[in-house]
Amino acid sequence: MTETPFRRARSEEQRAVRRQAILDTAAAMLTELPVAQVSLNELSRRVGLAKSNVLRYFESREAVLLELLGSAQREWLAGLAEEFAAAVDDAAPVAERADRVAAVLADSLAARPVLCDLISAQAAVLERNVSAEVAAEYKRAAIANVMELGRLIGERVPELDAHRAGRVAAGTLLVTGAIWTHAQPSAAMLAAYEADPQLAALRLDFTATLREMLQVLLAGALARG
């Protein structure tokens, strides 16, 4: 249980501390549970507040998770330039650089399963139970994150102008969410794969599939130049 040194948050500073405690608790839950299993009831129990009190800080479970998605994306982007610098040779031919960018993106995202799970739930779940105000705030932050990802991609593949690099960035997040969903089969699907080797060929490896799709995305964006 996350505890704060006060029972009631009376000042703005105390409210900020309690709000952050809710976010930290939800983030910890996501290391144990998939997004679909993170409930407001359990979050309230772990943070040590009544559900009605949690709702004073966030209007819904989805609002909490949307904020965590935005912060997880910013944290990922903050370290991505260094990952690119370590793996992409700026003097290499453009096709080789593009393939390395795709590989870095795939490996980096695969190392962040919570981020991938949140991305996969964004449109179908997290954006469905929030107010227009919360939705707009999230979308403004999301646009900034996509622009930053596009800038980082463009630094390594300057043959892409800002518009095409931005399209690749947006496509990266869309493809990540789709592949993550399909790469997390249910228990029934796992049993079917084990029972029938022909079906097992349909099981996706997240990292390899994402890398291949991003290579295609980058090659297509370059070809359209």
From TrEMBL:
Gene3D superfamilies: Tetracycline Repressor, domain 2 (1.10.357.10)
GO molecular function term, any single one: DNA binding
Domain of life of the native organism: Bacteria
Chain residues forming the annotated DNA-binding region: 39-58
HTH tetR-type domain boundaries: 16-76
Keywords tagged on the record: DNA-binding
Database matches in Pfam families: TetR_C_34, TetR_N
Official protein name in the record: TetR family transcriptional regulator
Taxonomic source organism: Streptomyces microflavus (Streptomyces lipmanii)
